Amino acid sequence: MSETKYFATKYIRLSYADDKDGESNSVENQRKILDSFISSQPDIEAVSEKVDDGVSGVIFDRKAFKEMMVDIEAGVINCVIVKDLSRFGRDYIETGRYLRRILPAYGVRFIALNDNIDTLRDSADDLVVSVKSIINDAYSRDISIKTRSALNIKRVNGDYVGACPIYGYRRSDENKNRLEIDDYPASIVRDIFRMKIDGMSALKISETLNARGVLSPMAYKRDRGLPHPTGGFADTPETKWSATAIFRILNDETYMGTLVQGKQGTFNYKIKDVVDRPESEWQRTENAHDHIVTSQDFDLAQRIMQLDTRTAPGGSKVYLFSGIIICGCCGGRMTRKTNRYKGKEYLYYYCPTGKKNGCAGAAMVKESDLIECALESVKAHISGIASLESVLAVSDGRKAALALAKQLQEQIDDNENQLAKISGFKSSLYENMVSGLLTKDDYKTLKTKYTADEARLRDAIATLEAERDNAMEGRAERLRWMEHFQKFEGLNELDRRTVVNLIRSIRVISKTELDFTFNYQAEYEQALSLLGISKSTQEVA
Question: pLDDT tens across 378-427, in order?
Fold first, then answer.
């Protein structure tokens, strides 16, 4: 027995890969083993306990481990005791560096009970230590490979393996690897897409949501106690809607039912830095869950967001029919071409696939003819929709109004819940100051903040209640898709924004035959069916 007195730290570690419900590696079991040993050693006194729960042994950037090293450097402890070598670390090189260099440099005794390692008796260069370190390292590599493989199989099968479901979805109670719609935030997502399609900027959308008192995705998850990311911007207090958050939602394919996973990863089991993976390695599963927005509205929002960035080479304007005109033979996108003859320019659209590659479609279509035909078709379609509105307002308007009123009431209820919470916090401020939990300055600051929040929410509730009453009395929006077209009534000229807002695609069947598909085509045909009118009859009219 040594005459030196050792002041020890009990170091305990449990990783996510360990069986936390089992006895072999549980925190409590490790503690009992260490306490039992120390009680039998009169020359050792436990002065602290450091626990890293749920942390990999491959990395040494652990909170409790770093606290222990601070104590060692300060001379507070001169002995480290662990259940076995793997609890200290599983990386062969780093574990060896600590045992051979760092701990001996500070005169620290290291004891691993189950591995029968004690540097007071044996050197850290002992063959047993080296072999066990290599085995522990290999074990970590094996676990990493198995875990990655299991997750990849789930991704291939369309299972959701993320930690925090995206705003608008939650984990299914029946199947934790499947997303299901969270009704309230889903309605906000639909509103975001609608506002964008209606021509509102991302900044304006964020300002509108903040004015209504709608909680941002991060604030909503915190308020509901839902899983959410931590660190970085995620830990910023008072998170609000921003243009960046709006763009993130508008660009996320998850909302149209497509699950895209594996966008990021780590190099290997030792290097934990997250890196972006190439798109070719992403796992995409269509129809993995119910969609919040249709693929049609999602694509339309994408096209609208690209209006100001996709310009002609050397120019400042986007081609009028770019991305919309399609070859009726091969289905490829047709390309705009300029021909010059005797000092004049002639603009055409043609299929770049060509006959050599199997396309037997129309050779070229004049842009001037296309513009004339498109304008007349759009005007006729708008006129047809206008003739439907008066009939549908009676037959279906009440149902639409009730649905809108219900959505508005849900937002009112949510704001009232927020208001009740804030009022409760505010009412307890004075008592907390008197009891000493708050300083006088903190009391004044929080009281001012809560008062401002109450005023903001009351204003938002009043606005929403007015919108709800308008809906119930028939003064609100009835069929939004109709209004989307009707705002273009009196149209006499086409521009890029109008084309993208109204026309889904133009298929060139021949030089004299074009097939137009308009946005909200399904809703339009459903309305015709409701009135017992065929599409061909409406077109003739």
Answer: 888 777 766 656 555 544 555 556 767 788 888 899 989 989 988 888 88
CB of 213 closer than 8 Å to CB of 418: yes
Nearest partner of 196 among 271, 247, 132, judged by Cα: 247
User: Which of the residue ranges 441-455, 467-481, 521-535 has the most confident prediction, judged by mean pLDDT?
Assistant: 441-455
Q: Give the E-state strand segments of 124-257 in sequence order.
A: 169-171, 179-181
Distance CA 333, CA 351 (A): 7
Q: Which residue has the tokens 């009970």?
A: 113
- For 485, 525, 529, the CA distances from 536, given in Å and listed in that order, are 20, 11, 12
Q: Which long-range contacts (CB under 8 A, 24 or more apart) does 261-267 make?
A: 261/155, 261/160, 261/161, 261/162, 261/285, 262/152, 262/155
Nearest to 212 by CA among 363, 412, 38, 25: 412
CA distances from 298 to 179, 255, 291 (A): 19, 8, 10
User: Residue 343 CB: number of other CB atoms within 10 A?
Assistant: 5
Per DSSP, the residues of 270-294 read S---EEEPPGGG-EEETTSS--SS-
**Residue 77 and residue 7 in contact, taking contact as beta carbons nearer than 8 Å:** yes
Q: Tell me how far the alpha carbon of residue 22 is from its chain's centroid.
A: 35
Phi, psi of 315 (to 5 degrees): -120, -175
Secondary structure element (H or E) that encloses residue 207, with its range: helix 202-211
Tokens linked to 229 = 């990311």
Residue 4, CA distances (Å) to 38, 42, 121 in order: 15, 10, 14
State how far the Cα of 84 lies from the Cα of 89, in Å rounded to an integer.
9
Specify the 3-state DSSP secondary structure of 240. coil
**With contact defined as beta carbons under 8 Å apart, do 262 and 279 qualify?**
no
| Confidence check: pLDDT of 524 > 90 | no
Q: Measuring CA to CA, which residue among 211, 210, 154, 217 is closest to residue 185?
A: 217
